[in-house]
Amino acid sequence: MPRIFVSVAFFCAAAIAATPTFHKDVEPILQAKCQSCHRPGEIGPMPLLTYAQARPWAKAIKAAVATRKMPPWFADKAHGRFANDWSMTDAQIATVTAWADGGAPQGKPADAPKAIAWPDGWNIGKPDLTVRIQDPFPIPAQGKIDYQYVVLPSGLTEDKWVQMAEIRPTFRQAVHHVVVFIREKGSPWLKEAKPGVPYVPPTNQQFQNTLGAGNDILTVYTPGMLPDVFKPGMAKFVPAGCDFVFQLHYTANGKAGEDQSTLGLIFAKEPPQQRVLSLGVANLGFAIPPNDPNYAVEARLPIYHEGTLISFFPHMHLRGKAFEFRLQHPSGEKETLLKVNKYDFNWQLAYRPDKPIVLPPGSRLEGTAWFDNSANNPANPDPNATVKWGEQSWEEMMVGFVDIAVDSKFTRRSYQRPAPKPAGGAQ
Ligand code: HEC
Q: Atom of ligand 1 at shortest distance to CA of 69?
């Protein structure tokens, strides 16, 4: 008999010791994987900074992490490593699950990790320059909202290099994306738009406008996107006298409101060795057949001059299913750089390689997008439609954006042109 008592007591002690507590076990995980979004002013619907805030959500947190719905991350682990990979390890999921199942105990405050000093507002720090949409843009609760273009003069009187860039919307729930383009002085693009006034261009201009008509992208905001923070020695170029063209895509989400997005920039202290260009593999000419569950669309970008790939950003709409980036080496050998298996339109994420990927001259970047235009895709607005390129969510896009750092002597145009043939033999 005494023996049995001993072992029962032993089991109880082990079970108690094994139940993770908030402060000791769970809080460090929330800090590392959740709080960047789940804090005031960011996109997460509720803050998860304290025990009092997290406790009522314990069951929902368990469900969200166990299904890997949270944190949102879609890269196939078989290809590439990414610096911004915030997905959880199996051990972390087990800890959070055991905590919720064990009654979500608080534990000792003395075990708590040091609270992270999250910035209030700008994640990049105090910007050197801010540019804000002049009037809040009204967003209805329902209905289609055309892409809005707002041209805002930069006011820059000298050329600048941008080290960090962030866009802060004020009504995040309704912001599908904000892209800010750099329109150089004298460019005829959107010249009919009045500065500061939201403008909807004629639909026949859609192709060129959506991708910025050859103008470089300064920065992008989408739900889950981290601000651009370039390594020292790498920066984006903004010339004196340029305008910033905000492309705003709002989607009505059942709640009316208004948005007044602001762009913030921190400039490099000195000119960098490398200029960051936002380029892409894109296919504008596809037609996805009705009811096709797995339609592939290909695109490629020839590399004429060495570059370093520092970010991927696959973009499709509601029928988007999967996306793959490959590098074809000059030898012809192909390497998969990123595979997104379960593409989710609601999460437009960037994937930043943890080691820079060198693109040698003579190589080629390739992208494949797969679309599910069948009735089995719950997001599909109309399986019986033949679907072509267009701005709205019921139309489609196929773009694999990439940020490439190149020698700062290049312009966007010269980087995409082959080097002139050597003049050898002419004499
Ligand atoms: C990239 C930003 C981001 C990160 C990182 C993130 N979340 Fe979320 N979370 C959201 C957004 C936005 C929503 C609301 C939309 C949705 O449910 O998809 C959400 C929803 C949730 C919900 C569901 C709330 C409900 O209404 O049922 C839970 C629970 C949750 N998150 C927990 C977590 C936990 C735990 C982590 C970390 C392990 C985490 N999230 C990481 C942005 C994020």
A: 18
